[in-house]
Amino acid sequence: MTIETFELLRPTSLVEASKLLLKYGEDARPIAGGTTLVILMKQRAVHFPYLVDLQEIPDLDQISVEGGWVRIGAMVTHRRVECSPDIQRSLPVLAEACGKVGNIRVRETASVGGNLAHADYRLDPPPALLILGADLVLFGPNGFRTVAIKNFYRGMYETALEPAEILVEVKIPPMPEGSQAAYLKYSSLSANDWPCLGVAALLSLKNGLCHELRLGLSGLAGTPLLIRGLDFVRGQLLTDRLIEDVSKVVNEQISPMSDLRGSEWYKRQMAGVFVQRAIREAEQRLST
Ligand SMILES: Cc1cc2nc3c(=O)[nH]c(=O)nc-3n(C[C@H](O)[C@H](O)[C@H](O)COP(=O)(O)OP(=O)(O)OC[C@H]3O[C@@H](n4cnc5c(N)ncnc54)[C@H](O)[C@@H]3O)c2cc1C
Hints:
- By secondary structure, the chain is α+β, with helices and mostly antiparallel strands.
- The protein has helices at about 15-25, 35-40, 80-85, 85-90, 90-100, 105-110, 110-120, 125-130, 240-255, 265-285, and strands spanning about 5-10, 30, 50-55, 65, 70-75, 135-140, 145-150, 155, 160, 165-170, 180-185, 195-205, 210-220, 225.
- Bound molecules: flavin-adenine dinucleotide.
């Protein structure tokens, strides 16, 4: 596979990068690790005469913890998130989800920002970031703004990013007190393939009864999904019957597409199975 000629622009600040994106408009795109963009360009699915390389912009590759919030620069790779002691300690479900992306070569190169901005419908990190209530910091011609990840996805491959805007960092609040979370990936083709579907569950209990349940899903709609309307579990025992009721709520909100990883019917069945397993896994982690 060959690639059509393009010019690689190497800005050294966010302001410069955004100006270049504004100047070249539809002819330009940011490039981070290039794991998606270069493949698409080699396949001639897309062509951009100008690529705006984000690697020289300072501080986009930092992980930091401030006031309990974890901040992950857009250029941080999945492998660094997976292996970060700070993240393993405070947001283990995110390390778990990033550790399930593709294979180690992809994780060493692919950036968290590239994953989110690409907005494929079957990615591993978004469900974990949805249940964690992450905020995304964007920079563009009008300066910085923050968008909650639940409002970031607008459709398949469509996000809230405006022209010439760059995803700068992901900010994640501390997990709710007494909660545990789990991310389960189901690959129907091979172990390190893209997910057929992914389910992240966050659970907290009070006096042995459910206090809070959050579910984030991937591969089950045109965008990653945060399931709405789970408040009814509060104060109830976490029985199989209750989980069945939760699965019904999930089934009403998903709209899986048939693709080579499974039919719509199959994905609905598997969604029920993996929702149940993810909730039980989070419960198990609460007791250990
Ligand atoms: C073999 C293979 C297997 C994979 N398996 C999985 C998997 O199992 N699970 C999974 O979740 N993903 C998987 N992926 C996808 C992978 O996660 C993405 O390719 C990767 O995260 C994209 O990051 P990147 O840094 O390479 O982005 P790039 O390829 O550089 O860019 C991707 C897109 O995002 C835009 N972009 C990048 N950074 C920014 C930014 N900071 N601001 C605004 N726009 C930006 C680019 O313009 C481009 O449109 C796989 C990819 C490959 C090649």
